[in-house]
Design brief:
single chain, 103 residues, alpha+beta, TolA/TonB C-terminal domain, 3-stranded antiparallel sheet
Length: 103
């Protein structure tokens, strides 16, 4: 049975977009915020056997600058515990939505 990768500690990747000092915030680029452009970027990535993120790709794009901001947000995630199968660490693939909202 395959067990999913688990974070070693809780990580927040959302927050107030107006607070640049919040380390868990995925920032909307200022030029897009002023234009009122937001959207959802779908990312796919692997958690390898050592708990690091690899092979990040954008599956569905909202805007090229939002894609870059979403990929940069993956760098905020600390090292994770890898998934296990029969007691051995294995690579696990994830697909997540990253939502950019303008308020």
């Amino acid at each position: 049975m395959l067990q999913r990768a688990k974070p070693r500690r809780r990580t927040r990747l959302h927050g107030r977009a107006n607070d640049p000092h919040d380390p868990g915030v995925c920032q909307v680029p200022p030029s897009l915020r002023e234009a009122g452009i937001g959207g959802v970027v779908y990312l796919q990535f692997n958690i390898n056997e050592f708990g690091t993120i690899q092979d990040e790709t954008v599956l569905k794009s909202a805007h090229p600058k939002l894609d870059k901001a979403a990929l940069d947000a993956l760098q905020c995630i600390p090292r994770l515990e890898p998934g296990t199968q029969q007691g051995r660490p294995v690579r696990v693939t994830y697909t997540i939505p990253v939502r950019f909202t303008i308020r």
